[in-house]
Amino acid sequence: MPPSLLGVLLICYSSRGHQLVFSYPRNPNRTPQPRSRTRSTHPSHRAGRTHAGGLELDGALELDVHDGELDRRALQDPLSKGSQPERDTFLGFDPQFLSDILSPKVALCDRQFQLTVDDVTFVGHPTLLNADRPGTGHRFARVIQKKRLTDLAARAAANKAASNGGPKGAAGYSNHKLEERDPNSAYGLSSLGVGGSSAVTPVGSDGTAHQLTMFNLVFAMQPQGGQGFSQEVEAMYNHVIVKVTAGLKYEQLKRGYVRREAELMISIKDEAQSRSSARVRMADVMERTLAESSLARVLAHIYHSITTNLMAHVVIDSSIDLSLQVPASITRLASKSEYGLKPLDGETDLELDKPTMRPYHALLLLYDPEEILKSLPLDPSPLLVELVQIVTPTQSFEELQATLNCSLSQIYRHAAHLVHWRKAKIINVVSPRNVYVVSPNTDANMLHYRIDDFSNRFPQLDLTKVLSELNLPKPYSHLMPTKEYRTVYMEVITYLLRHNLAVQLQMYHYIVIPDYIRRKHAAARQQLASSSDTADPRIDVDALLKSDEPVVIADPMECTEVERDWIAMVANTQPQPVATLFLRLVQYFSGKYHVEEILFVENISRRDFKLILSRYDEYIVTSLNPDP
Predict the structure, then answer these.
(1) CA angle, 112 then 118 then 124, to 5°
(2) Are 504 and 626 in contact (CB under 8 A)?
(3) Which long-range contacts (C-beta less than 8 Å, at least 24 apart) are formed by 364-372?
(4) What pTM was computed for the model?
(5) Which range among 238-242, 522-526, 539-543 shows the weakest confidence by mean pLDDT?
(6) Cβ count near 130 (within 10 Å)
(7) Measured by CB atoms within 10 angstroms of the end CB, which terminus of the chain is less buried, N or C?
C-alpha cells in the first residue's frame, strides 16, 4: 500500500504555553476524503474529559469538524485576522488549532496519544519532563495551566473595564501595560508567528530560561484504503515514535537539546514574519530551518525514509544513534513471496521478520557493499564488515563459515541484522543448474525504470529479452550462449533476484499410487475377508476394484491405514536397503518440502536422493513451484 504517513509535527509546552514548533513537509500530500466527524480513537481518550490547550473537550472528542473548517475559527485568536504574510497552515489546519488539540492534559501524557480529525490520524507520545523533581513535571504543568487561565480571565476583565472607561482592569493591570503586552502570549502565539510580530526571546520575563515541561512528537497519518491501518499505526508508534521520543527526552534532560532547538526554530519563524516586506515565502523559512536546526533535519530525514520504505539512520544531538523503520510485514502488498524485501522502487514482495536460515542458504545484498558499509554505525562488528565485503550469492552459509573462520550462529546473527535493516535477503545459492522464471509480482509498468539501469550495467544485453527467455521453466545454464558468458549471466540473475524480477522454482514431490497397486491390495483384502467371513468396514472393496485412476496421497504423515498399506507395497517393489530409505523419505513427499530442505533435515547425500527418485520414478511426481 502507499505510505500512509503525511507529516511530522513537534509540539512544545513551556512556561509560555503550548506551541507548534515544527511541521514537515511544508505541503503534505493529503488525499481528499468524505466529510467526517472528529473522534478520538485511543482508549485513553474515552474515559473522562480530554484537555486540549485551553479547551475542555469530551473524551470522545465529538467536535463538529467538517473538512477541517468548522469551529476551528472559534479556536483562532480574533486579533490574528489582520493582514499577514503567507499563511502557515499544515494539512489545512491552523497551527494554533493543531497545538491546542495535540497538547493533552497531564493525565494523558507519557502514553500513546491518538486523535483523528477529518480522517487524518495524529499519533504521538506526549512526554513530561522532570516529572520526578519537586516543582516540575505534573505539578508544574498544572500550575502553568492554572496561570494561563488566570491570565486569560485577567485579560478579559481588563478589556471589559477598559471598554467601560475604567482606569484599570480587574486584575490591577493598567491599560498602558495591557497595550504593551503581546495579546497572543497567553496562547503562545507570538513565538509561533501567528497574530504577532515580536521576536521570541530565549528567556522569560524574570530573566531565566523558559521551563520546557512537555513535548509531543506527532506523526500525521491517513489510511490509503487498504487493510491493517490500525496495525500500521501501532507499528509506527512502537518502532519509530517511542524510540525518537525517548532519545529526545534524554537529550533534553541532559543538555536542554529540545528547548534549544525549539527556540531556534521559533526565532526563525518570528524573524521572517516580523520583516516589513509585503510577503514572506514559507518555503524560504523551511529551507533556513532545515539548514540551521539539527532537530529539524532529523525529523525530515525520518519522514523521507519512512515514506520511501527505507531504514532511517539518525543521530540526535551528535550523541544518540538510532536506526528506525516500520516492519515491512505491516506494509505488505502481496499475499505470499519468498524472502522479498521492499527497499527499492518497484518492488512488491514481502519481508519475513524472522526468516529461516539454513546452512544451504545464501545471503543476497540489496545494495552495493560500499553503500551498506557507509550506512553502518560508527563502531560495527569487524565480522559484519568482513561479511559484507566478501559475501556473494553463490556461496552458502556453510562455505562462508569456513571462509570467515567463525560459527554458523555468528553468520546467522549478522545475516539477520542485514535482513532486518533491509540491506539483504535470504535466498538459495545462485547456480546455473537452478530454474528461474519471471516473478509473478513483476509490475510491467515499472520496467521502464529498470531498463536504463540494466543497460548501464550490462550494455551487451537487453532486459526485456532476458525476461522473455525466463518465461518457460528450464535450467538457467540453457540461457547462456557460451561458457564465456557464464560470469555475466550469473551477475544478471543476481540483479534480477535483487530487484524481485525473477524467482527460483524449487522441486517438490508427491507420492502417487497407480491403479494396479490398489487393485492388488483390494483383492488381497477381499480374499482375507472372504476366508474369515468378516467384512472390513474401513474399505469399500467394490469401489476400489472399479476405480482405475491413480491416487495422489496428500500427506503421507496423516494417511489412512489403507494408504499406509499402499505405500508399503510400493516400497517393497525394490530391494530392502532401498525400500528402507524410501520409507524414511516418503513423509516429505507431500509437496511441502523441497529437495534442499529434505537433504538438510535427513542428512543424506544428493546421490542417495537421486537413487530413490530413479528407482521409484513410477510412483513419484515432481513439480516446480516457487517457495511459499
Answers:
(1) 15
(2) yes
(3) 364/393, 364/424, 364/425, 364/426, 364/427, 364/430, 364/494, 364/497, 364/498, 365/391, 365/418, 365/423, 365/424, 365/498, 366/341, 366/422, 366/423, 366/424, 366/425, 366/498, 367/343, 367/423, 372/418, 372/423
(4) 0.62
(5) 539-543
(6) 16
(7) C
